[in-house]
């Protein structure tokens, strides 16, 4: 049965989507079947693997609001083992539309049930907020992977994130675990990056991945070509970092 990992941090621009795309792609080239579920109205994970989001009729919105089977919306990517359940900007309305739904926190979990056996890993890319979409993802997941940008105020807001995880553990999903904490946009030349790394290690201890994602321009360029960095520029630092992360991730899971 596939493991479901949600990539979350309510802070914007910390590398959630970059990690969803590139960790998923790196595991996929190791010949595991991987699905990315995009639950962010910005739809960056979808466009980042080459989906033309513009006129999409079948998206995660239809799954959550109209009970369309998840299987119907899944699309192939450039990589044979990588699949995507895309989002669309109209997902912005889902929060309000779900207010009166029965068992609304469980919508995504229910949608996932029938396809769990079709994939080895399912990564959910979250929006930068702690709303009903995020709670749906936490309820559907086995674990949470938290990217942290090596920047000022890196730990700000994490108490709130951890509180939300605890609340979900208490009432909606007992088995929810912390998968790992990933340092992103690291720059070894900066004292700041090294300080943030120390601080995060003190706070999360063993949960912090040994692999660190360096700041790398190719990681920023690849999405505009609709590609993971690994097909865009296999020799880049970004590709190397995410392949190494995939190895560490799989080792932890073995
Ligand atoms: N390691 C990196 N090196 C250089 N640029 C990066 C790196 N990781 C991410 N970026 C760039 O930083 C920006 C934010 O990254 P990303 O979209 O992955 O963050 P996010 O947490 O998903 O953002 P949001 O909260 O808006 O969903 C993007 O332009 C991305 O291309
Ligand atoms: Mg994002």
SSE arrangement:
Elements: E1 3-7, H1 16-28, E2 34-38, H2 44-48, H3 60-66, H4 70-73, E3 75-76, E4 82-85, H5 94-97, H6 107-112, E5 121-125, H7 132-140, E6 143-149, H8 158-171, E7 177-184, H9 191-204, H10 217-221, H11 229-232, H12 237-253
Parallel strand pairs: 1-5, 1-6, 2-4, 2-5, 6-7
Antiparallel strand pairs: 3-4
The structure holds adenosine-5'-triphosphate and magnesium ion (MG).
Adenosine-5'-triphosphate is lined by residues 12-18, 40, 42, 44, 128, 184-185, 213, 215-216, 219-220, 223.
Describe the model.
The protein has helices at residues 16-28, 44-48, 60-66, 70-73, 94-97, 107-112, 132-140, 158-171, 191-204, 217-221, 229-232, 237-253; strands at residues 3-7, 34-38, 75-76, 82-85, 121-125, 143-149, 177-184. It is of the alpha/beta class and 254 residues long. The chain has one domain (3-253): Rossmann fold (3-Layer(aba) Sandwich). The model has no long low-confidence stretch (mean pLDDT 96). The structure holds adenosine-5'-triphosphate and magnesium ion. Magnesium ion is lined by residues 16-17, 40, 44, 125.
What's the short story on this structure?
This protein has about 250 residues and is of the alpha/beta class.
Runs in which pLDDT lies below 50 for 5 or more consecutive residues are none
* CATH class bucket: Alpha Beta
Helix content: 40-55%
The overall number of domains is: 1
Distance between the termini: 14 Å
Order of helices and strands: EHEHHHEEHHEHEHEHHHH
What is the third-level CATH name, the topology?
Rossmann fold
Q: Which small-molecule species are bound to the chains here?
A: adenosine-5'-triphosphate, magnesium ion
What's the Cα radius of gyration? Answer: 17 Å
Sheet/helix structural class: alpha/beta
Strand content: 5-15%
Largest sheet: 7 strands, mixed
The CATH homology group name: P-loop containing nucleotide triphosphate hydrolases
The strand line-up of the biggest sheet is 3-4-2-5-1-6-7
- What is the overall shape? globular
Mean pLDDT: 96
CATH architecture: 3-Layer(aba) Sandwich
Number of strands: 7
Quickly count the helices: 12
